[in-house]
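comment on this one:
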Amino acid sequence: MTENTKAKFARLRERMAEQNVDLIALAPSSHMDWLVGFHPMLCERPCLLLIGPEREAFVMPALNAEGSRAETDIAFHVWSDDIGPKEAFLAALADVGATAAKHIGFDETMRIDFAMLLLDALPSAKRSFTDDTLSYLRMRKDEREYAALKKNALIADRAMQAAFKAIQPGMTENELMAIISDHFSSENAPMQFAVVGSGPNGAFPHHHTGDRKLTDGDAIVLDIGGRTDGFPSDITRMAIIGQGPDGYAEIHDIVERAVQAALKAAVPGALARDVDAAARGVITEAGYGEYFVHRTGHGMGIGGHEPPYITASSDTVLAEGMVFSIEPGIYLPGRFGIRLEDIVILRADGAEILSSLPRTVHTA
């Protein structure tokens, strides 16, 4: 076990004690990745990492055991298809000192059939997700995580600039996406997603990039991200061809002011919903509240979407080290959409933007 992993287990157990949680159960997921640096393949075979007050152990399918052993020295309780997982699970539960656990913290991404092993074994235990334990720790990034996220953000900046240079009337959204993908690949950061929403397609926040041809006067939403060193990127910028659609400049200015309001509100001690309210208030006051149809942001770490979520209903208290997006938008059906997105890390004096690319519209 690396020193970094040992430190994470120590911090997790401190937090478990503070929250009176005496067992954490993780499935193969980003939680497991964060804690131990890998996860076995997720399939229907129960695979769990159980973390008790002093010890930890895996419930490991035999098919995954040999490959996983190269990744960790944590104890394995191996089970095979001809026997089933129950015996190995109960042995692991005893190994970590949790046969009488009173409070289980569940990985919220866990399959229900995995969870049933725990629920059947400990039917009286209090149950919660990892919000106050593992997720709480994951939200607060260290400088190593910051460096990886910053590196990815700058790669995404360059991929966006490659897209800007390539835009021309007559090319399709898919052709532009291929150029973005090629750039990410050239920096060993495979593209994870790309929304290229041109003209009226930009009014769909999660538009599936397609074969529509870019035309003069289009506004184009470019929401892209790649991944390297185990961390992702995520950025949204706008481009127009020629003069762009009628009213574009006014709407872009409103969205930019919403970003600035959210950045100002994003300080340690603020509630996540206050940041959402700051952005949403600008857009609502301008008369476009009904066209801002999603949350203001999402957290980002090894997961592209993770806590904290910057929503109108979130009471999460923002703290130094948290990383999240600020991405308000206005989407006018049948016309165009505008979204401007930056990833920020919260410092003592406010939000530091990871990108170096201005939010001004690119004119092709």
About this structure: The mean pLDDT is 97. Residues 28 and 39 are 5 Å apart (CA to CA).
